[in-house]
C-alpha cells in the first residue's frame, strides 16, 4: 500500500515538473507579433504603411487604395503609390512630418483611387511605393470588395466620363409668322429711277 502511494506521488511530481518545464521553454504568445488585419504592412524609408488594402468595385475596373501611413521623420514626404506597372495611374499623397494619415478617412479630394487598373477581387495586386530620397518598395496588396460591411462605403465610383457640350437650337430660317397667319412675300419697293418725270 505504501509502495503504491509513493509511486503515485512520484508520478504526480513528474507531471508537475514536466509541465512547468514546457511552459518555461515555450515562448509566450504575447512576445510573438502576429498580423491580424485584412491588409499588409510594409516599410518605405521612414514611412510605415499599415493595413494596406485595395477596395474594388465588383468588376475590378476601379480600385481604391486604403492604408494608415505613419511618418516617423521630421519632414513631410510625398508618397507615390502606383498599382501594377501603370505609371499613368500613379497617385501622390502628402504625409506631414511626425504625423499619421488614414487614407480610409481622407476627404474625397485626397482619396487614392485607380481608375485605369484591372484587378480581380480576392487576388493580390502588386503596388509600388516610393518618395524622393528613399528606396522604393513593393508588395502584393489584397483586393477586397464592399461585400463586408466595414468596406461598403469605401468602394470607388467610376470615373466621370467627359461630357459633350449640347448644341443649341439651329437658327430658324425663313420668315417668322404670328400664330394663325400665313407668311406673305415681301414686295420690293419701287426704284426711284422707275418713277416718271412728267
Written account of the structure:
This protein has a domain of 105 residues: Immunoglobulin-like (Sandwich). It has 1 helix and 9 strands. Strands 1, 2, 3, 4, 5, 6, 7, 8 and 9 form a 9-stranded mixed beta sheet that branches. The chain is extended and about 80 Å long.
* CATH class category of the domain at 41-145: Mainly Beta
Shape: extended
Q: Which architecture name of the domain at 41-145 does CATH use?
A: Sandwich
Question: Count of helices?
Answer: 1
Low-pLDDT regions: 162-179
Secondary structure: number of strands: 9
Q: Return the average pLDDT rounded to an integer.
A: 76
In N-to-C order, the SSE pattern is HEEEEEEEEE
Distance between the termini: 169 Å
Report the CATH topology name of the domain at 41-145: Immunoglobulin-like
Main beta-sheet strand count, sense and barrel state: 9 strands, mixed
Helix content: 10-25%
Q: Beta-strand percentage?
A: 25-35%
- The computed structural class is alpha+beta
- By CATH, the superfamily of the domain at 41-145 comes out as PCu(A)C copper chaperone
Which helices and strands appear, and what pairs or packs with what?
Elements: H1 2-25, E1 40-44, E2 47-56, E3 63-71, E4 77-83, E5 91-95, E6 100-102, E7 112-114, E8 124-130, E9 137-144
Parallel strand pairs: 2-9
Antiparallel strand pairs: 1-2, 2-3, 3-6, 3-7, 4-5, 4-8, 8-9
Give descriptors for this structure.
198 residues; alpha+beta; Immunoglobulin-like; nine-stranded mixed β-sheet; 12% helix
